[in-house]
From TrEMBL:
This is Anoctamin transmembrane domain-containing protein. The keyword Transmembrane applies. It comes from the Eukaryota. Residues 6-212 form the Anoctamin transmembrane domain. PANTHER family: ANOCTAMIN. It comes from Zooxanthella nutricula. Keywords: Membrane, Transmembrane, Transmembrane helix. It is a multi-pass membrane protein.
Length: 212
């Protein structure tokens, strides 16, 4: 019985994620209509809703990650592989819902393929450019300035490095490779799903994966 209740709790959490995505779509429609009434600029009408979507998606992604972790903990898995598999599936599902809700609405409900093509163009260019700058260029710039802990030399022998420098380097945050894999998977999912509408999506997704 307890296991069934835990599964029901996970299902409710996923339904909440779907409801939040629906609210986001409604908000984007409201923003798009408001902007369309205020200006006739083609660029503003198409870019503004997507920029709002990108910002909201970025914020909600953190919420979904914590929700996936909490739901997985509530399921009470006794084996780590089972726990990790359940957590990965939830993160992947939430990531797809969070990233593609807007495009799925345009494709299947509104059926405005010209507008969908424009939104996908901005998504595969502007959003990925922003992501590459924040995830690749900024860390490289910080590394070039010199964020390596004082006293730590990568070419030094273990006996010549001070314990304090080793401890400081050990405390550095490890790269989250799992989230990067989920991001790339979501990007290629968008490229494949909407390939008939935006064939260049596969090329942009490949360039993003290679560059990152």
């Amino acid at each position: 019985v307890l296991a069934v209740l835990r599964q029901v709790l996970s299902l409710l959490g996923m339904c909440v994620a779907l409801a939040i995505s629906g609210l986001i779509i409604q908000m984007l429609l409201y923003v798009g209509e408001a902007i369309e009434g205020m200006t006739s600029n083609f660029v503003v009408q198409n870019v503004a809703p997507l920029l709002v979507y990108i910002v909201v998606v970025g914020l909600l992604q953190r919420v979904y990650e914590h929700l996936a972790e909490w739901l997985t903990l509530q399921e009470g898995h006794l084996m780590w592989p089972t726990h990790l598999r359940s957590l990965t599936m939830k993160k992947a599902l939430f990531n797809l819902i969070n990233m593609h809700g807007w495009f799925l609405y345009l494709a299947f409900w509104k059926q405005d393929f010209d507008y969908l093509h424009e939104q996908l163009m901005i998504f595969f260019t502007v959003k990925q450019l922003i992501g590459n700058c924040t995830e690749v260029l900024v860390p490289r710039a910080v590394s070039a300035v010199g964020r390596t802990p004082k006293g730590f030399d990568r070419q030094a022998t273990p006996s010549s490095v001070s314990p304090a420098a080793i401890e400081a380097h050990w405390m550095l945050q490890e790269p989250n490779i799992g989230d990067d894999y989920l991001e790339v998977a979501g990007l290629f999912a968008a490229a494949i799903w909407y390939c008939p509408v935006f064939p260049l999506g596969l090329l942009f997704a490949l360039l993003h994966a290679v560059f990152e």
